[in-house]
Input
Amino acid sequence: MPFWLDAVRRFERAIGVPVERFVTSDAYFDLLPHLKRAQSQLEDAVAAMTEEWYRLVNLPSGSDVRQMREQLSRMERQIERLTKQLADRDATGPTPTVRKRDQNG
Amino acid sequence: MWPLLGSDLAGRVGRDLERSLWRARNGLRYVQAMSRPREGATPKDVVWKRDRAELWRYRSETPIRYAPPVVIVHSLVSRSYILDLRPGSSHVEYLLAQGFDVFMLDWGIPDERDADNSFETYVDEYMPLAVDAALAVSGAHEVTLSGYCLGGVFGILYAASYSEPPVRNLVLLATPIDFSQMGPMVAAVASGRLDTAELLDETGNVPPDALYTGFYMQAPTKEIAQYATLLENLWNDEFVDAYQAMAQWSRDHVPLPGAATRQIVDDLIRRNVLASGRWELGGREIDFGDVQANVLNAVAVKDNVVPLAVTEPVMQLVGEPSKRDELRLTGGHVTFGAGSHAFKHTLPALSRWLADHSDELDSPKER
Output
């Protein structure tokens, strides 16, 4: 192994061991939810600010797109469920041969 | 002596120069290929499809020597091409070369339409249809189910759910059972410090980035040494191909459906139900002891994703004691699909067990 590669590996372990100890510690997992919430709050604050500007020029904002996407998702799930129910009812191909275990086994 | 030293020096300079050129060429190839979507290496046909889930049957020139066919059930949180990474370095290709008929049940890339997918969706809806399709196209009347990681949990639930499941063998590769032993991140979820709702995005699923970050944060500085090793070996086409395939797979996660995530958090992690050997799912209680199949628990002793202690309870809980076998492998979580150890030890051992628990056909069958 060349000298430089050995040096990089030693360096990585020198910093990696304490970093790994921290990211598996209780302190890190106590901190993580707070960081995640702070990040969400920051994103919400930025979105709220930009939303006003988008609305002024009559453009959909990020939250409008998100809401529309959620609505579409719900609709697509519903359509897919109905499609499957119809397909299963009309199915002429192979059907499951296995039977669910009954109450008595 | 001097002329010899001179020619030796010239040879070394020439070699270093040549390697530098290969490094430059492979460096460009590496950067270009990282953004290219990767698929499995072995040719295959889609023989069944429902929503995003697909059942693939692999093609091979090698005739089929063994029955029943092997249906690999993949996990929900990673891409299935880890078991079919590259030609010459593929779990699937290895089994085909031994004469097995190999299928892969791949869950696809879930999107917002799959946010309501629960364990019931996979075990009660997809798996019976996929297994029936495998039986129909292979002409067999039973299968070997081989579940990788969470796919092993699906395999247990499916094989224990039905009174006469067409499963002769159940192979469990790094299958998590005791979630109390999973490590600090899962312990943080168990204690309520990480909330399920905060993990989901607007599609109702856990985004792949969140999963990648979770795995990445286990050893965040490891990439430094990995990149240095890559730089040193960048002249070597074989090394670069293998590194690239593995690096791409480790970043290539798929969204985890929201309903399944809630079950993982509430039932598997917080209540640790799998460790009890029973789970009430879809209105009935599933007892893992009801599995009738031969069971092979294949565990990797250096696995830091699903540590040994997490998989060990299989040997007390799943199937009949006389039909259980354990295979301890010295590799890590990906030893079932990648690395030299996989092809020297893991796959030969797995293949031997499969052959011992399968029927050798009187005359090999063309595919």
Q: What stands out?
A: The mean pLDDT of chain B is 91. Residues 44-179+275-360 of chain B form a domain with the Rossmann fold fold (CATH 3.40.50.1820). The interface with chain A takes residues 50-51, 112-113, 115-116, 124, 128-129, 131-133, 135-136, 161-166, 183-185, 187-188, 193-195, 198, 202-204, 217-222, 224-225, 228-229, 232, 284, 290 of chain B (CB under 8 Å).
